[in-house]
Design a protein that fits this description.
The protein is of the alpha+beta class and 281 residues long.
Length: 281
């Protein structure tokens, strides 16, 4: 294998990083490395070398690139020489099939973007949910929970506790005004939340949080924790529709994609038969 000499590389970098040269300054492309019938040129690696680095670092990077390029070319040549013609033909078929799949899938994606209806009504989501309930069993515990975590020496601690224990909307709104003083909080107990996510934020056991409770309070050396568990769903319970709505929409869209592609395939085959470009003997 014939690599460019170190002195030649230094020459290319002599006035400045040679990769910053304008293309018009290089009148005749000069290879910086060659192996067998392949040559490596400056333009092949020009944009691969980071800018604003020292000449020494550029040289190291370029030398590594040349080395890796050479290794790749040698290994490719060795593999072609040592594989049987059947093995090479098999690999070529795999490459061709993969190329065809990429082209077809790209074309399908373009058609999907142009023609797929992405609007999904609440009625469609509800209908899909009702028809497929058996497939929506939970594999995690869910809670409707309200909690607060704040420093135990908070000046208005008693007021915060009182507001938290209240079910009045006005008190909840008043509590939200203090949220900048909380370490963490979840005040909307009308939405389902995964228990595992809650356990990362408040120091209660799984067993305690899996029980409905009006009010729990816990204190450590630094913080105070307030918790209300409004509702609980356990593993294998039916997942609430509100919790999996986005998943259902994705499933509906997936079905639409499959149906759209099937229709497109039928149309293009029919057209090809009619114009006699597709003939079955």
């Amino acid at each position: 294998m014939k690599f460019i000499s170190f002195l030649s590389i230094l020459f290319l970098f002599s006035s400045c990083n040679y990769l910053s040269f304008k293309k018009e300054e290089i009148l005749v492309p000069v290879p910086i490395a060659s192996i067998f019938d392949d040559e490596l040129f400056v333009d092949d690696i020009r944009n691969l070398v980071p800018k604003n680095i020292s000449k020494e670092d550029s040289l190291v990077i370029v030398k590594n690139m040349i080395h890796n390029w050479g290794v790749k070319k040698i290994m490719l040549k060795k593999s072609l020489d040592n594989n049987t013609s059947q093995e090479n033909a098999k690999i070529n078929n795999l490459v061709e099939n993969y190329k065809q799949s990429l082209l077809i899938n790209n074309y399908k994606e373009q058609l999907i973007k142009q023609q797929l209806d992405t609007l999904i009504s609440d009625e469609e989501v509800e209908q899909y949910y009702e028809l497929n309930k058996q497939n929506f069993k939970l594999n995690e515990e869910l809670l409707k929970i309200k909690y607060l975590h704040f420093k135990k020496d908070l000046i208005n601690k008693k007021e915060i506790v009182s507001l938290f224990k209240s079910d009045e909307i006005e008190d909840l709104e008043a509590l939200e005004k203090h949220q900048l003083t909380f370490n963490s909080f979840q005040l909307n107990d009308s939405v389902w939340v995964a228990l595992d996510n809650i356990l990362l934020k408040i120091p209660f056991s799984r067993e305690i949080l899996l029980k409905k409770t009006k009010f729990i309070q816990k204190q450590d050396s630094l913080s105070l924790y307030l918790v209300t568990v409004k509702d609980v769903l356990k593993r294998n319970d039916l997942a609430p529709m509100s919790y999996i709505e986005s998943t259902i929409k994705q499933l509906i869209l997936h079905q639409r994609k499959i149906e759209l592609i099937r229709k497109i395939e039928q149309i293009i085959v029919k057209d090809a038969i009619q114009n006699k470009s597709f003939k079955i003997y």
